[in-house]
Model the fold of this input.
Amino acid sequence: MKDKKSILITGGAGFIGSHVVRLFVNNYPEYQIFNLDKLTYAGNLENLTDVENKPNYTFLKADINDETQISTLFIKYKFEAVIHLAAESHVDRSIEDPLAFVKTNVIGTMNLLNAFKNLWKNNFNNKLFYHISTDEVYGTLGKTGLFTEKTSYDPNSPYSASKASSDHFVRAYGETYGLPYVISNCSNNYGQNQFPEKLIPLFINNIINNKPLPVYGDGNYTRDWLYVKDHAIAIDLVFHEGKKSETYNIGGFNEWKNIDLVHLLCQQMDDKLNRLKGTSEKLITFVKDRPGHDLRYAIDASKIHTELGWKPSVTFQEGLALTIDWYLENDIWLNHVTSGAYQEYYQKQYH
Ligand code: NAD
Ligand code: TYD
Done:
């Protein structure tokens, strides 16, 4: 084990993290992959049953907010590279409890940066701190334009403000201490294993259960959607080939107004469930808007395309069909994550 490169992935039991862990464990037997996760409501080891017994995989249950625990683990396992995904990730929850987002997204990131710096400060050669971030740090776009890597930060929600802050700290550690880093800012992900609090899995689950589909405001908000496995491939590329101290924007070249996306989802669900055309659309219900709701996000992903040759591999229609199939086949997973605390969250958020 000692001659293997030791790689820490934080938040690996979550949605995107589990796809990244799987890709790295399967593709890089020469790495020892440590998945560090607190297993909050969003973390679920059922996402990783297919790799849990691989010899190059180790799970560490830990909290990035716990400074002592984190520095002890860095000293013990000598992580040479970090891919940092652990975060509180849902905008609506950040409106309810902003401080939880500061604690995990800002202080938690600081604890990782400090532990990494303290371990390697005398020799940063061949080390890397890769911070995974979001396009939401750039704020909102009007009807036109795209976010580039040079767009100024202008976050509007407690979630995006906490992610922006963590991005700034990563860069500051690079400038101040010479810590080797790379950052990527990605658009909205969708796909297998996403917790059903985000738009697409929430609506899939509600359609299955004939429950209303709560569209915020008039539904004329635009997001740029990327299939999660394409994000994991982009992370692999940036990790191995990205230039140090740089940012890469990752996006789907795939903008959808929420209401148009919901119509497409309803049509695909009717097909898959053998329901009469138009059945799911009847569930659409316009509800009170989210405060501070960003109108539009859209990424200019030309830098990662030109420099690293990355582009999405599936169309939205294909990715959405794969996603729906997965949720329909994994009713046990869906039942586990929607029992208990989820019911309380749902009542509070939507009633
Ligand atoms: P997620 O909420 O599904 O998973 C987050 C994971 O982090 C969970 O496994 C959770 O248990 C773990 N975690 C939370 N707090 C922790 C703590 N204090 N200590 C250790 N582990 C903790 O999130 P996701 O959607 O997979 O997002 C992963 C990362 O990607 C986040 O940093 C997010 O900001 C970023 N991102 C997400 C999207 C998206 O569309 N989901 C888009 C761009 C960027
Ligand atoms: P979400 O999946 O929460 O991602 P983000 O806020 O990070 O973009 O929401 C995607 C879009 O869908 C966003 O414009 C808010 C909207 N939305 C609804 O209309 N209803 C809902 O119940 C949810 C969760 C989101």
User: Anything to note?
Assistant: The pocket of thymidine-5'-diphosphate (ligand 2) is lined by residues 91, 188, 198-199, 202, 214-216, 221, 223, 258, 290 (CB under 6 Å). Residues 6-194+225-254+296-315 form a domain with the Rossmann fold fold (CATH 3.40.50.720). The two ends are 52 Å apart (CA to CA).
